[in-house]
From TrEMBL, chain A:
<keyword id="KW-0833">Ubl conjugation pathway</keyword>
<feature type="compositionally biased region" description="Polar residues">
    <location>
        <begin position="13"/>
        <end position="22"/>
    </location>
</feature>
<keyword id="KW-0927">Auxin signaling pathway</keyword>
<dbReference type="Pfam" id="PF18511">
    <property type="entry name" value="F-box_5"/>
</dbReference>
<keyword id="KW-0539">Nucleus</keyword>
<dbReference type="GO" id="GO:0019005">
    <property type="term" value="C:SCF ubiquitin ligase complex"/>
</dbReference>
<comment type="subunit">
    <text>Part of a SCF (SKP1-cullin-F-box) protein ligase complex. May interact with auxin and auxin-responsive proteins.</text>
</comment>
<feature type="compositionally biased region" description="Acidic residues">
    <location>
        <begin position="1"/>
        <end position="10"/>
    </location>
</feature>
<dbReference type="Pfam" id="PF18791">
    <property type="entry name" value="Transp_inhibit"/>
</dbReference>
From TrEMBL, chain B:
<dbReference type="Pfam" id="PF02309">
    <property type="entry name" value="AUX_IAA"/>
</dbReference>
<keyword id="KW-0539">Nucleus</keyword>
<comment type="function">
    <text>Aux/IAA proteins are short-lived transcriptional factors that function as repressors of early auxin response genes at low auxin concentrations.</text>
</comment>
<protein>
    <recommendedName>
        <fullName>Auxin-responsive protein</fullName>
    </recommendedName>
</protein>
<dbReference type="GO" id="GO:0009734">
    <property type="term" value="P:auxin-activated signaling pathway"/>
</dbReference>
<dbReference type="GO" id="GO:0006355">
    <property type="term" value="P:regulation of DNA-templated transcription"/>
</dbReference>
<dbReference type="InterPro" id="IPR053793">
    <property type="entry name" value="PB1-like"/>
</dbReference>
<keyword id="KW-0805">Transcription regulation</keyword>
<dbReference type="GO" id="GO:0005634">
    <property type="term" value="C:nucleus"/>
</dbReference>
């Protein structure tokens, strides 16, 4: 706003050139009914009025896509949008520099940053590749002191970064770290001790080291503002007594997810202090080691019954199934249930799931077998998201779930929007059936764990199944394929997958044509991750028209050469083309182990480790 | 950070998902990789990310090397292990790793311990571990039919409660069956065990 006012001050008779368009419009609007073309100002600074109006209106625009579009209208809209953007999302931390981001967006309250590509989760990327939070926190500390929320995914965060966060931003409120690493309990300790307004501390699937600092004890005394505390990924014990006192003085606490070092007896004590919880991660859900035989067990059922607002349940990290009945009182209210750490059978699941009529999100292990999935299908008519994880994640293990459970789910849960399903065997017929039964599918991720495994009944490739999914599920934006797949499957994807934004491919396809179909056919493609598939330089070149529209392309163990990647790098200057070697490779090997390329405004990054070559 | 990774790798199960990409492969560059389905689809170049499981004990079922028959059968010859496949997050240990905790009670001891049966491969390993845990007692090494030194003059028999609620002598059934059916362990004073008729010899020695 200050900028616009100074522009107005400078203006004498004619408006500044860059405000021409808007000023004219303002005059026209204000002077309605005026006969001549002469202007008559009813207010001294119509541009200022317009600016005010714009600012107020743009405050309501929350979707970042809408904001990006609005910022392209004209310069003043660009400026006002930049001033009013309070939540900044950066899908690839290397696409733009911290300096550039803070220069444009000066009033950001929330920063959402993503770093490493997803395949890094599966050890396909050497450690210390990058995605450091450090330059970001330093830049924002200087430029955006009103920052109060940080959400990071797959970034490296150090203890120093946590300290900087806590010290630079008064009134910092929310920190969410998903799949992050590089820090430890000492960093956490400093962070929690200095953030007196902290509402949210969520550590999700992150790896942190045990520096033997008691971080729970470091929360300041007195009433806390905590609304969410999630630490179920912490793989070492915490100070339970300190936690108990913390929960007791956190009247706003709604979300609490404990790690496996909290026993069920300790869980009871916490639940009694916090019956207002809406989200609970139950920790180990088994008694501690040091339990006398014949000790009086607390009344777990009553404790759960008292939590009348509980809608989301997880944990069960070392579950002793005998204790499962304790959760009966709240099953009917649950909208989300995560049993993905609970090795339970169908028989143990049934009494629980048969009461979960409102369930929308269900994560589970395949230990429940097809029979367990049938029970889910029979009751959970509101199910939107299902994830079935393998207990035994090997290719040749027995498969307790198959197309039978898959089909049952498709028939029972018609509102399904998102599925992730690990299995050892599948049929095209079942996948086709799901494509018809569940037309609302947005996310379809099927992982047939045996590589190149065909339809186990017909022996055919799985092309037709995945083809039916892209054909019939018109809202599909995310797809992961597996099993024996020929180029035909990719032809289908290119032809029908018009809304697909994320595609995951592994051990699939026959030739370059497969990749060409996808790159030429899918205009919305943003994220493409491919491993161990026979795609070479020619296929890579067929995407030149599209790479600037994508967030990234990952190809590992394919048939790319240095020369091919070099060609891409030459052709597209705003693309950063990284060739990542594994430890035993020579620098000038002809074949490329891993290609990771992404659009960027900044050119090659200056923090690349030795095993990364930027072409 | 790399040490964290190393720790993670050691913690994975014998299925060996998380082999380092640096492990050696057999075969020359460009040679097709052997896959269990006959190599119909040859995805890639020489295998940086695929390794051959070089556990010699598994390559030949005649060579026991202390592995049980059941374990050798689970890892067929020339099965290649692939880094990062299936794509289940490495440090999201689900179900399998820590699901088999059983309580261990020792007659006369004031506290219980818990052990994870999954981390052992044989009765011998389990009993050695129990002996370490309860080092002030000596556990009668029943399976090897040798009497241990009776330091305090008290011998203990390892017994367990199975899925049906029956108390059995540890060592009566094959190891895997024991792991699946054991609900809790009790180290019973030998004098008491005699009265329960548990003195018959085990059918399976610790070398199975």
């Amino acid at each position: 706003m200050a900028e616009q006012m100074s522009d107005d001050d400078e203006r004498q008779q004619s408006p500044p050139s860059d405000l021409d368009f808007t000023s004219n419009k303002a005059r026209t609007c204000i002077v309605t009914g005026s006969v001549s073309g002469h202007t008559e100002f009813q207010s001294p600074y119509p541009d200022q009025v317009l600016g005010n109006v714009l600012e107020n209106v743009l405050h309501f625009l929350t979707s970042r896509r809408d904001r990006n579009t609005a910022s392209l209208v004209c310069k003043s809209w660009y400026r006002v949008e930049a001033l009013t953007r309070s939540e900044l999302f950066i899908g690839n931390c290397y696409a733009v520099s911290p300096a550039r981001a803070t220069a444009r967006f000066t009033r950001v309250r929330a920063l959402h940053l993503k770093g490493k590509p997803r395949f890094a989760d599966f050890n396909l990327m050497p450690p210390d590749w990058g995605a450091h939070f450090n330059p970001w926190v330093l830049a924002f500390a200087k430029a955006c002191p009103w920052l109060e929320k940080v959400y990071l995914k797959r970034m490296s965060v150090t203890d120093d970064d946590l300290a900087t966060l806590a010290e630079s931003f008064l009134g910092f409120k929310e920190l969410v770290l998903v799949c992050c690493d590089g820090f430890g309990t000492s960093g956490l300790a400093i962070f929690v001790s200095k953030c007196r307004q902290l509402k949210v501390l969520d550590l999700i699937d992150s790896e942190l080291s045990d520096d033997e600092t008691d971080w729970i004890l470091c929360f300041p005394e007195g009433e806390s503002h905590l609304e969410s505390l999630i630490f179920d990924c912490v793989e070492f014990p915490i100070n339970f007594e300190a936690l108990e006192r913390l929960v007791a003085r956190s009247p706003s606490l709604k979300k609490l997810r404990l790690n496996q070092y909290v026993s069920i007896g300790q869980l009871y004590r916490l639940m009694v202090q916090a019956p207002q919880l809406t989200h609970l991660g139950t920790g180990s859900f088994s008694p501690s080691e040091i339990a006398g035989q014949g000790d009086q067990e607390p009344d777990y059922v009553t404790a759960f019954a008292a939590c009348k607002s509980l809608i989301c349940l997880s944990g069960f990290r070392e579950i002793i199934p005998d204790y499962l009945p304790a959760i009966y009182p709240i099953c009917a209210n649950l909208t989300s249930l995560n049993f993905s750490y609970a090795n339970i059978t169908a028989e143990q699941l049934k009494p629980i799931i048969s009461n979960c009529h409102k369930l929308q999100v269900f994560w589970v292990l395949d230990s429940i077998c097809d029979e367990g999935l049938q029970a889910v299908a029979a009751t959970c008519k509101e199910l939107r998201e299902l994830r079935v994880f393998p207990v035994d994640a090997r290719e040749d293990s027995d498969g307790p779930v198959s197309e039978v459970g898959f089909l049952a789910i498709s028939e029972g849960c018609r509102k399904l929007q998102s599925i992730l399903y690990f299995c050892q065997r599948m049929t095209n017929a079942a996948v086709i059936a799901m494509s018809r039964n569940c037309p609302d599918l947005v996310v379809f991720r099927l992982c047939i764990m045996g590589r190149h495994r065909p339809d186990h009944v017909t022996g055919e490739p799985m092309d037709d199944g995945f083809g039916a999914i892209v054909m019939n599920c018109k809202k599909l934006t995310r797809l992961a394929v597996s099993g024996l797949l020929t180029d035909k499957a990719f032809d289908y994807i290119g032809r029908y997958g018009k809304l697909v934004r994320t595609l995951s491919v592994a051990f699939a396809g026959d030739s370059d044509m497969a990749l060409k179909y996808v790159l030429e056919g899918c205009p919305q493609l943003q994220k493409l991750e491919i491993r161990d598939s026979p795609f070479g330089d020619a296929a890579l070149c067929s995407g030149l028209h599209h790479y600037y529209n994508m967030r990234f392309l990952w190809m590992s163990s394919c048939r790319l050469t240095h020369q091919g990647c070099q060609q891409i790098a030459h052709a597209m200057p705003r693309l950063v083309v990284e060739v990542i070697r594994s430890a035993d490779e020579e620098e000038m090997d002809v074949c490329v182990q891993t290609l990771y390329m992404y659009r960027s405004l900044e050119g090659p990054r200056n923090d690349a480790p030795k095993f990364v070559t930027i072409l | 950070m790399s040490s964290e990774n190393g720790k993670r790798f050691l913690e994975t199960d014998a299925g060996g998902l998380n082999f380092e990409a640096t492990e050696l492969t057999l075969g020359l560059p460009g040679e097709p990789r052997v896959t269990s389905d006959g190599g119909a689809k040859l995805g890639s170049k020489r295998g940086f990310s695929e390794t051959v499981d070089l556990k010699l004990g598994d390559n030949s079922q005649e060579v026991k090397l202390g592995h049980s028959l059941q374990e050798a059968a689970k890892s067929p010859v020339s099965k290649t292990q692939v880094v990062g496949w299936p794509p289940v997050r490495g440090f999201a240990k689900r179900g399998k790793k820590s699901c088999k905790y059983v309580k261990v009670a020792v007659d006369g001891a004031p506290y219980l311990r818990k052990v994870d049966l999954e981390i052992y491969n044989s009765y011998q390993q389990l009993l050695t571990s129990l002996e370490d845990m309860f080092s002030c007692f000596t556990i009668r090494n029943y399976l090897n039919e040798k009497k241990t030194d009776q330091v305090n003059g008290i011998e203990y028999m390892p017994t367990y409660e199975d899925k049906d609620g029956d108390w059995m002598l540890v060592g009566d059934v094959p190891w895997q069956m024991f792991v699946e059916s054991c609900k809790r362990l009790r180290l019973m004073k030998s004098s008491e065990a005699v009265g329960l008729g548990l003195t018959t010899g085990p059918k399976y020695s610790s070398t199975n």
